[in-house]
Amino acid sequence: MAFQNLEIVHVVAMDQQRCIGKGNDLPWHISADLQHFKAITQGGVVVMGRKTLESMGRTLPKRVNWVITRDRNWSFEGTKVAYSIDEALTQAVADVASSEKPTSLFIIGGGEIFKQTIGIADRLELTHVELDVQGDAHYPEIPADFQKVASEQHIDDKTGIAFEFATYRK
Ligand SMILES: NC(=O)c1ccc[n+]([C@@H]2O[C@H](COP(=O)([O-])OP(=O)(O)OC[C@H]3O[C@@H](n4cnc5c(N)ncnc54)[C@H](OP(=O)(O)O)[C@@H]3O)[C@@H](O)[C@H]2O)c1
Predict the structure, then answer these.
(1) Does residue 68 fall inside a structural domain?
(2) In a domain, 15, yes or no
């Protein structure tokens, strides 16, 4: 763990090839997964890359939104901006401590940010979507020192897509 008493959590949905995005958008719409994401992160602090914020087009309500960019001129109403991963994590710690989820920092994408933080993640909240969407943003390989500690299988009523909510810990 990079910071004392702070659990770094990845929250992400991926397909069978670990694809998480296509054309700077989510490749699927599974409302139960959006609810799952909300339940995990609401009241807490989320950290994301600039492209993920722009793909959502809005900040996430009831969460402190930290965005990472290299562009010193970039801004978006309602976000806090950091210019490196280290800066984002260091500064977000104070927000985490005063949030409703005071021990967890939620990293929510996208591919570039997951790749650079998988080495410091303590818990992974992964939704495995039973699709192969051939997109352009990917989650890194799950390191061997993570083990799946919880799993729930579902099928989306509307689309028939099968998916699994899985928790991994070191
Ligand atoms: N399925 C899911 O759960 C999920 C979750 C999130 C996102 N997504 C998808 O993932 C895709 C976006 O992912 P992505 O990999 O293309 O982009 P991203 O990780 O969201 O953002 C990349 C941007 O972050 C900034 N950045 C990255 N590393 C940095 C560093 N070390 N220091 C400073 N800034 C840094 C840069 O911004 P600047 O260019 O401004 O400098 C870079 O262009 C979209 O398709 C989105 O829908 C899926």
Answers:
(1) yes
(2) yes
- 85-134 residue pLDDT tens: 999 999 999 999 999 999 999 999 999 999 999 999 999 999 999 999 99
CA of 140 to the centre of ligand 1 (A): 13
In this predicted structure, the answer to whether residue 2 has a pLDDT above a threshold of 70 is no
Number of domains in the chain: 1
User: Average pLDDT of 10-28?
Assistant: 97
Question: Are residues 70 and 83 in contact, defined by beta-carbon separation less than 8 angstroms?
Answer: yes
Is the CB of 107 within 6 Å of ligand 1? no
User: Is residue 1 situated within a structural domain?
Assistant: no
pTM passes above 0.90: yes
- Site to probe by mutation for ligand 1, drawn from 34, 46, 55, 68 as the one with most ligand atoms within 8 Å of Cβ, is 68
What is d(CA 142, CA 118) in angstroms, rounded to the nearest whole number?
Answer: 8
Residue ranges making up the domain that contains 31: 7-169
In terms of phi and psi (left: phi > 0; alpha: psi -120 to 50; beta: otherwise), the region of 45 is beta
**CATH assignment at residue 148:** 3.40.430.10
In a domain, 2, yes or no: no
